Every structure is written in structure tokens, then in C-alpha cells.
Amino acid sequence: MADAAGDWLGLKGRLCVVTGAAGGLGRAIAAGFAQAGARLVLLDRDQAACEDAARALPGADALAIACDISDPETVAAAAAHALRDAGPCDVLVNNAGLLRPGPLATVSLDDWNALMAVNVTGYLLCAQAFGAQMLAKGKGAIVHTASIASRFPQPFSGAYSVSKAGVVMLSQQIAVEWGPQGIRSNVVSPGLVRTPMSEAFYQAPGVAERRAAMVPVGRVAGPDDMADVVLFLASDRARYVTGEDICVDGGIGRTIMGLIPRPGFERADG
């Protein structure tokens, strides 16, 4: 067990691989691991942005590798590179993601397949490549980024909700199949989070205020809110947690009954 007075998470020195590391969530997750003393391998299809993310972690042991997780050969090469230059993986965070608008009635097969290739198949490829290193050691943790959209369909987003639901089941299947070999697998499903990918929504007049008003805790999440949960699930503090999907949404997913008119049950503010 980690020292409660010091390294509470017990991640110091562990090699943590983060995909989509150049994005808002990826950078926050990487920063959290770095602060916990972990060693890092950062993967992103944008090499320059990935290297910038590594430089943003002063003093951290971070290796940046360009990787398109939808390409099996690129994933295999990245895993081999990381193993050679950093050592075997202890923690994998499957975080890379793709979002494209499109109603189901007209979504193109190319757009559908592109989302599934990154959001589901890419997670499997990374789990296989880096999971093999964990299986060889008999210990490891995988944390996948899904979405509240895996539970509640997000209209006009093509394959997004379907792909994120696939991530949840992929994680659960990994948990069952690899659990006996010492590998845990869990999901973090963000609700509303303000990141570079979603920032355009918040630039529209009134959207930020209306979204915050919908959340019981009264604010839209930031990337650090997700990173904290990822680190917990990656650590031995969650050593008996596997196959779970943790919805980190400030309670917004529990508000549906409040939308139904029920005379006599109105809120009384005095």
C-alpha cells in the first residue's frame, strides 16, 4: 500500500502510456501522472503537438511518440519503441478520440467507420499492444475514456454514442478476460467538459451559462476533474475496482426526473 503521508497513489516510477496526449484531457492526465512521479509515454498522431505536450511537463520523464491508433502497424511500432526506450507499460490510458457531426439518416459510411476505427478499434489495438507487456509481468491497469454519451444517446453525432458504448463493453470484456492475469480495466465517462475539442460550443452566446445551470454542482468540468479520476483508477488505491464505468458528470445524468412536470413537487426556494 502507498504511503498515506506521501505518495498516496503509489504511481511513482511507473510507466504510464497516454494516447491522445496532445489534447485537453490528454495533457491534464499526463500532468497528473507527472505530478505523481510517474514516467510517461505520450502518444498522439500529431508529432509536434505531442512533443509540445512533453515539453509542458518540466522535469518529467516523458517520451513523445507519433501514433495513429487506428493503424495497427503504427500502434505496434509505438509499443515497440516505448518498450525499447522506456520499458514495459504499467498503465495504459486509452484517451484518443474522434467526434464528427452527422444525423444517422445520412451519415456516410466513411465518417461512421472513421469514428469506430479510432474510438473502438484503436482502443483494442492499444490494449493488445501495451497489454501484452502488462500480461508478461502479471500486473497492470487500463483506463479508457468513454463519455456520458455511452449511456444517453447524443443526437446527430454519427457513430459517437455507439462507439463510446463499445468502449465500455470492450473494457468490461478486458476486465473479465485479463483479470486472472493481474490486469484491471475501467472506464471514465466524462459529462460536460470544457476542452479545446468542445470550446467552439462555449463560444456561442449563452451556451456556457446554460450548460453550467444544467449541472447539479453548478459548473462545467475542466480536464483536471477527469484526470483526478483517471489517476485513482490507474493506481493501486483502486486495486479491487475493475470492469467499472465511472460517470464523472457533476450529477447531470441524474437530472432527467427533474425535467418531468409533477404538480405539487415544485422546488420551494422560500
Summarize it.
The chain has 270 residues and is of the alpha/beta class.
Describe the protein in words.
The chain has 270 residues and is an alpha/beta fold. It has a single domain, classed as NAD(P)-binding Rossmann-like Domain (Rossmann fold). The chain is built from eight helices and seven strands; from the N terminus they run E-H-E-H-E-H-E-H-E-H-E-H-H-H-E. The chain has a seven-stranded parallel β-sheet, with helices on both faces. The chain is globular, with a radius of gyration of 19 Å. The N terminus is likely disordered.
**Helix/strand order, N-terminal first:** EHEHEHEHEHEHHHE
Domain count: the total is 1
Proportion of helical residues: 40-55%
In the CATH hierarchy, the architecture is: 3-Layer(aba) Sandwich
Distance between the ends: 49 Å
Task: Give the spatial strand order of the biggest sheet.
Answer: 3-2-1-4-5-6-7
The CATH topology corresponds to Rossmann fold
Q: Globular, elongated, flat, extended or rod-shaped: what is the shape?
A: globular
Strand content: 5-15%
User: Count of helices?
Assistant: 8
Q: What is the assembly state of the chains in this entry?
A: single chain
CATH class: Alpha Beta
Question: What's the average pLDDT?
Answer: 94
Give the radius of gyration: 19 Å
